[in-house]
Write a structure and sequence with these properties.
Distance between the termini: 43 Å
Strand content: over 45%
Number of helices: 3
Number of strands: 34
Shape: elongated
Number of domains: 4
Radius of gyration: 34 Å
CATH topology of the largest domain: Jelly Rolls
CATH architecture of the largest domain: Sandwich
Helix content: under 10%
Amino acid sequence: METIRMRSILFLLILCQLPLNIYASDVNIGFEEGLKGWECYAADVPGSITNKSINDSSIWGNSVSIENCEGRFSVIANQDRSDLICNSVKLKTDCGNQFLRLGSADVDHCEKVSYKFLFDEDKSIIKYSYALVLQEPSWHESYQRPSFIASVSILRAGELIDIGSCASSHYYGDRNVFADLEECSSNSSCLSKKWAYNLIDLKQFGAKDGDSIVLSFAAFDCTLGAHFGYAYVDAEFVNTSFSINGSNEFDKICLNEEVTFSYPGAGIFKGEEYKWSIIDKQTGDIITTQESQDSMVYSFEKAGNYKILLEINIKNDGNTNVDTCVLNRTVSQDLHVDNCAETGCNDCPSRFAPEPGEKYVVGGWVSVPSQLDRSSFEDVYIEIRYSDGTSVQCMPEGNIIDGWQRISQTIEIPKGAKSMTIALKNTSDASAYFDDIRFHPVNASMKSYVYDPETLRLTAELDEQNYATFYDYDEEGALVRVRKETERGVMTIREARQSKPKRD
């Protein structure tokens, strides 16, 4: 096999993934390390206050040590049970493994926690979650009732900048004002709010390098000293993978070919809305728009360069201004559309046109020279990708013959596929080689021939099973040896020696 394999091409594969995940961070906004880094404030509720402020130092005074506030700041691990007073509130959050209970069923208290950290553009989206238990004294004024406040602020040059109501949440015990507060079935004197979240895009509110961010939560009991309110809170940084995926490579799209564009972060949050636009980059014209779908299917009628724009609007789940407080992001993707039928595809054989719904045999040989001690090269394979998003992997099987392993697999092209891509994959850390790639109908046979480009002699013949027969010649061009590739290795099946008689 050495002669024919010498013309093999080296293929290296680098795989990249953009997962949807929570950022790993040393910042402890999610209470995974307890109250490390948090400042805690505990006070008695001033009966005279009419404006419960989360940043009023006259209310809070100086921060206190947690040891002196037992029962008022409780870090709780996720568990399958409910709050003891209001069983509609579950003691489990989706932000992490731990969360904080702020306050208690004792009265005449108020509690606050604050966390300060440096703004990082790669961690610009904060998600804070909360659940509430608030008593409802119907004869109280609104400012007198048990309440909860959450706030995100920017600290710049020593000045605390309020970035507006969309970066905060404020509730007090009055179901007539807050329709999302429910009466606790286990305690009719209390109202509850099940876990909800608020998304804050710090870049959207003007945060920049050098800024500090302050995240704060506060719970107030009744100012008259007879009714309680407390909250469960948690937070995290979120990466929603703002990008666009395509069913085809963006630089290899042909006219009249259906392409599916999709948003990989769809469904992560509630209240997501989408608007797709396709723009002709040469003219600036908007070719088409589509709303309210997390994907778009489009077939281009004109070759050229285009831009795909996706506007993503995510409404906050828990904010009382849910209709106006929206996280906005716009992502784009450039692409090229080619008139493949007229100009030809430089990378595609002009007569290679497999039929959807039909079966074909995919064959080839693979080698990983540094891994010859293995029984199989399972990290090296041929992948067939279709325009409908499906794919199939054709893996090597059988014995390794002189450092090579054969691929032979029958596939069926999906009936709805408009195009397909043959990809040579190497997921190992070593160099890999591919050779003798073939693709033919399952009900047909195929033979291949290799000729010396200078002498035009037949040097190799590949049979219906893609096994090679090698022809060796002497310096005068006479056939001296025939070798056959088999499952047990390469065997010599014919050998001849010639000599000229001596002349007197």
